[in-house]
Amino acid sequence: MNRLAKKVTAGVALTAAVVYGAWRIAGAGNRSGDFYWTLAMGRWMTAHGIMYHDVFRYALRGHSIVSMEWGFDWLVGIADRGGGLMGITALLIVIWLAGMAVTAAYLARLGVSLSRCVTGTLVIGVLVGGAVAQGRAL
User: Fold this and answer.
1) Which residues on adjacent β-strands are paired with residue 53?
2) Is 38 exposed, middle or buried (0-12, 13-18, 19+ CB in 10 A)?
3) Please, which contacts does 132-135 make with residues 24 or more away whose CB atoms are closer than 8 Å?
4) What pTM was estimated for this model as a whole?
5) pLDDT tens, position by position, 17-72
6) Cα(115)–Cα(131) distance, rounded to whole angstroms?
7) Residue 82 neighbours by CB under 8 Å, 6+ apart
8) Can you tell me the distance from the alpha carbon of 112 to that of 82, in angstroms, rounded to the nearest whole number?
9) Who wins on pLDDT, 133 or 103?
């Protein structure tokens, strides 16, 4: 296979991966049971700041809370305020694409060939797409 054919094949494969990942993420917002918790915490933090005490559960109201995902919750709250579900979907796609770009750059820096770089990025991108779609990205 000549160089041009390899580049075209790599470009088509990468485009297919981006479209697949975006499609997977766009339809995954309501699949996670934690999505509405994340959305509620994000909305609260957007309005009031970082949450240090539980404000949602009656039995634990006022108790200290440690949210390991507060950064992602906060970003979801900002995306929700800016564009609703479309804003959240756009945020998830941007996070996923950034992960794919970092992976491709890292593999290229290691001196991996273009075809292997694209293949590795596709494999990792598809695997990570599920985690991003479920809100476990940050």
Assistant:
1) 64
2) buried
3) 132/25, 132/92, 132/95, 132/96, 132/99, 133/24, 133/25, 133/28, 133/29, 133/31, 133/32, 133/92, 134/28, 134/31, 134/32, 134/34, 135/32, 135/34, 135/35, 135/38, 135/69, 135/72, 135/76
4) 0.63
5) 677 666 666 665 455 567 788 888 889 999 998 877 777 776 766 677 777 778 88
6) 25
7) none
8) 39
9) 103
Q: How far is CA 92 from CA 82, 107, 136, in A?
A: 14, 23, 10
What pairs with residue 64 in β-bridges? 53
Beta-carbon-side half-sphere exposure of residue 4 (alpha carbons within 13 Å): 0
Q: Which of 86, 78, 88, 52 is nearest to 67 (CA)?
A: 52
Instruction: Name the burial class of residue 96, with classes exposed (0-12), middle (13-18) and buried (19+) by CB atoms within 10 angstroms of its CB.
Output: buried
- Spell out the residues 6+ positions from residue 95 whose beta carbon is closer than 8 angstroms to its own: 132, 137, 138
For residues 42, 47, 52 and 55, what is the CA-based torsion angle, rounded to 10 degrees? Answer: -80
